[in-house]
Every structure is written in C-alpha cells, then in structure tokens.
Amino acid sequence: MIDPYRIFWQFLTTSYTRFFFQKRFPFLLKSDFLTLSFLFFVFFAATLGCLSAQSSGFTLRDPLVGVAKDTWLRPDSTFNTKRFYIAAGTGATLYGTASIGLYHAWYSNFDRVGLRSFDDWYEWNQMDKAGHLFTSYMFSRYAFAGLRWSGMKRPAARYTALGVANLLQGTIELMDGHSAGWGFSWSDFGANVAGGLVFTVQDAIWHEQRILLKLSNDLRATPDIPVFNSSGAESNLGYIVEERFGTNFFERYLKDYNAQTTWMSANPRSFFPQSKIPVWLNVAVGYGVENVYGAYGNIWREGDEIFLYEPKRYRQVFLSPDIYFSRIPTKKRWIRLALGILDFVKVPAPALEFSEGKLKGHWLMW
Predict the structure, then answer these.
(1) Which one of 173, 272, 274, 309 has the lowest number of neighbouring Cβ atoms within 10 Å?
(2) What secondary structure does DSSP assign to 29-64, as a single string?
C-alpha cells in the first residue's frame, strides 16, 4: 500500500531540497525551525482529528463527474505518486521563488540575529494580522486542492494542507525572528494558525468551504498632500506612502493597508440548501482601516525634520454582495480550475460602510 506521508517526507528530505534551503536560507534548517514546524503540525492534526463531517452537493472528489470530459485535470480516485510529485514540485518551486524574492528584496537589507520574539499585536490596527489570516487560508486551500488532485484521501489531504500552510507561513516568521529590526511574532503565528483552521474546520465539518476569505484593494493613487511641522518645514504624505508601502503595483497591493480590505464571504445557499438563492451568490463582511501610515502612529522623519499626519486613524466594517466563482456552473474542467483560483478575489460591488460611528454607502467598492 502506498503511504503518501512517507513519500511527502522523502520529497522534503531529498538532497536537492535540502541543498536548495541550505544554500539560500541556512537558518531554516536549524533545530528551532524543524522542531516548531513538527510540533505545530502534530498538534493541529491531533486536536482536529476528532471532528465529524457532513456531506452536500459540493463534497465530491470530482464535482464534474458525468458532466465534463475526463482529462488530466480530473482528480485521481486513488493516490497517484506521479501527480503528487507534480503538485508538490510546483508548490515548492512557486514557494521557493517567492521566498528568495522576499528575502533579497527585504530581509537581506537588515542584520541577522539569533531567534527572538516580540509583540506587534497593536501595529497597523491589526491589518497585518488580517493579511496573515487570509494568506494561511489560501495556502491551505491550494495545498488541499493539489493533494486531492493527486488522489490523496480527504482527511489526509485536509490535515497535510494545514501543516503545509503553517510550514510556509513559518518561513516568514523565522525570517522575522532572525531579523534585527523585528522578532518572531506570536500574534502573527496565531493569525497563521487561525487562517489554516478556517479552512480545515470547515472541511472537517461540512466537507466544503461555506465561508471564504478574500482580499481586495482599491488601487488608489499615491496621495499628494502637503504636511507641515511646527517649524514650518514641508513634507508630503505621498513620500511616506512610497517609503513604507512601496512604489510598484505588487508592493502597493500587498502593503498599503489603507487600500486593502480583508473579507469573510459566506454562501447563504450552503446554509439554506432548499432556498432559491443562486448557488454562486455570497454575502461578504469586510474589515479595513483608513489614515494608517505607520505601525503605531502617522509620524515620520525626512532629513532632520519630524512630521505628523494629524487626521485620526480609524477602522472600517463593510457589508457587500459577492460571487463564489467556483460555484458558477460550468462543463469545462479548465474553467472550473480558473474559477477556483479566482475565489480569493472580492468582486467590486455596492457596499455599506460603518466607521467613525456613521453608516456610509458606496455605489461600487473594490
């Protein structure tokens, strides 16, 4: 009998994989990282293993069976070693590329120190924690999809995906933990775990995702707002936006918390299967912030001068309709694959906003 866990471990311990990480991130193979990763995975697999499951129309291994033609995109009915290596290799390549880029673009510019922790819970009005929650959820979902495509049984795929998501997120936490300017953040770790659990618990209970985590960004332009200090010196809000959130599209999309909204998008039809609500229609609740240009306050230094952007920082809660892309009916497997990848996108739609004690309306919110 084929043991997928043994194959997965062999993949992780191949000479190529170890050389890849030893060459670029030698500290990741130290005992602290391996021990933490192993304990995280064992703990969550053990504590969630007792959850029961129910079934619905979206719980089949192959939702398009009898509808779409059988192609290589059809999930295998038994464990397929070749497919497993394809899925794991593709994920490892994408992850390795992203990690190398992140390390050289950010962490290589700072001194390295021994592993340490620090408390950053109150930074950025917790928008960075929402980002960790979303990212871990998506890692779990994509890992689960790849493992199910390879033929792995649902419980094994579910808990392996949880372990993979926390392992991937753990890389960033260890980079932070070895950086002189930061440290290992237990609140970031908690958000990572929570994001993975949002996926894992739903799959354990319902065998489907009735609630999705999504991310949107209004792609706003760099502000051009003059800011003066008490001595009459002038700066510009756009200066600190570019300094802290970046200048290119990808940096601004990932780092500009004022432009971001993290959504929890629920599918009413999943909870009320006898209703006539379209199966692809969701209702989303979003969380965002405004006027947040620093971790704790909107203060920065330019040259020898210190500046403060005075408008009050505040939180936002949104309510908006949404679309569950992968539940749009289709008879094409490649279309379903593309729709599934798009499930992290919140559809631009009208929205209600509650902030600063007031209710506001938006005709179209990105």
Answers:
(1) 274
(2) GSHHHHHHHHHHHHHHHHHHTT------TT-SS-TT
Q: What is the pLDDT of residue 175?
A: 79
Take residue 96 and report the two structure tokens written for it.
């390795």
Nearest CA among 135, 125, 361 for reference residue 257? 125
What does DSSP assign to residue 276? -
In tens, the pLDDT along 1-45 reads 444 444 444 444 444 344 444 444 444 444 444 444 443 443 343
Structure tokens given for 108:
């290589």
CB atoms inside a 10 Å sphere around CB 196 = 29
Q: Which residues pair with 265 in a beta bridge?
A: 212, 284
Residue type, 238: G
Task: For residue 298, give the nearest of 232, 358, 244, 355 by alpha carbon.
Answer: 244
Distances from the Cα of 179 to the Cα of 25, 117, 167, 241, 288, angstroms: 13, 10, 19, 23, 28
More confident: 228 or 366: 228
**Whether the Cβ atoms of residue 50 and residue 159 lie closer than 8 Å to each other:** no
- Ranges of beta strands (E only) in the chain are 117-118, 184-185, 211-217, 226-228, 234-236, 260-266, 281-290, 299-302, 305-308, 314-323, 349-355, 358-365
230 contacts: CB under 8 Å, gap ≥ 6:
none
Distance from C-alpha of 7 to C-alpha of 152, rounded to nearest angstrom: 12
